[in-house]
From TrEMBL:
Organism per entry: Laccaria bicolor (strain S238N-H82 / ATCC MYA-4686) (Bicoloured deceiver)
InterPro entries in the record: BTB/POZ_dom, SKP1/BTB/POZ_sf
Domain BTB, first and last residues per copy: 20-131
Name by which UniProt lists this protein: Predicted protein
Length: 308
């Protein structure tokens, strides 16, 4: 092959060090970095750089008169953020820093694949801010979350796919729940749905049905009778029956958001009944939250599970 026939690669300037010791090529791009640093961070790259003929899909070609060249089968975007996080200490800082979700997920995948534990733990800590283990933190996620994008279907499906891929058991139950908040037709037609393993798709669909049924249970706080301190039992019962009858207007797929009519209810029942409703509703939300792992086929709180 002549020089004219050789494939052309775009040098990524911010990750092209003239005194670098290794070139990494992926798709149309190439990076020149320091092999020693990469090997010190990643056991996979350490092994890769120790042998002249590693197994596919990664290959090392020692080019005469140039640095060793590694060809990777990952995406340019994933490799870019992965190398940036290793060679630029300010690129992917620990919690409290604002970071884009796509960056967190890319680093999660690459750190898991190439065995960079500190980066993986840092990425999981960022994800735990947005897909937390406690209901209080979930309710506060928009206030304390430092991921730049709020959760939507694409975010939730991206997190679910990555969490399954890297076996992130800490966030998996909430990732299942978060994805199941959306319309089923949109979910199964989403581009990431087909990339989820069949047994997990089945687990998701069973959980989806159970989560939908749980929305109905969220309205049982309206079924009150003989509340101590009620100042107007007939009027309060009429008010509660009215909201029970019209409870179908609230979201049908997200039990935690299945009711938001407190302002109206406050005007139609006495203070004692209103307080009792809020306490019962709060307990119901907590019960659902605690049951999310079981709904999606995971062990309950305090139990462990290896997915692979």
């Amino acid at each position: 092959m002549t020089d004219l026939d050789a494939p052309k690669f775009e040098k990524i300037s911010e990750l092209w060090f003239e005194d670098g010791t290794i070139t990494i090529r992926v798709e149309h791009a190439e990076f020149r970095v320091y092999g020693g640093i990469l090997a010190a961070r990643s056991s996979v790259f350490k092994d890769m750089l120790s042998f002249p003929q590693p197994q596919p899909p990664t290959k090392i070609d020692i080019l005469k008169g140039s640095t060793p060249s590694i060809s990777l089968q990952d995406s340019v975007g994933d490799v870019h953020v992965f190398l940036s996080s290793i060679f630029d200490s300010s690129f992917f800082e620990p919690r409290l820093a604002t970071v884009d979700l796509s960056v967190v997920l890319a680093i999660s995948r690459m750190a898991d694949k190439y065995d960079v534990p500190y980066l993986l733990q840092r990425a999981l800590a960022h994800l735990a801010d947005f897909y937390p283990r406690s209901l209080e933190d979930w309710d506060n996620r928009k206030r304390v979350g430092r991921l730049e994008s709020l959760s939507d279907l694409d975010d939730d499906m991206s997190v679910l796919q990555t969490a399954l891929r890297i076996n992130a058991t800490e966030i998996l139950p909430i990732a299942f729940y978060a994805s199941a908040r959306h319309d089923l037709d949109r979910i199964i037609n989403h581009r990431r749905w087909s990339h989820i393993r069949e047994d997990y798709r089945f687990r998701f669909l069973v959980g989806y049905v159970n989560q939908s049924l749980a929305c109905r249970a969220m309205h049982t706080f309206l079924h009150l009778s003989a509340v101590d301190g009620c100042t107007s039992p007939p009027a309060c019962q009429r008010g509660l029956q009215f909201y029970t009858k019209h409870s179908h207007i609230w979201p049908k797929q997200d039990p935690l958001e299945a009711w938001s009519g407190w302002g109206c209810l406050y005007l139609d029942v006495c203070t004692a009944c209103f307080t009792a409703c809020k306490e019962k509703h709060k307990a119901g939300r907590q019960k659902f939250w605690d049951g999310i792992p079981v709904i999606f086929g995971f062990p309950g709180a305090g139990e462990g599970e290896e997915l692979h």
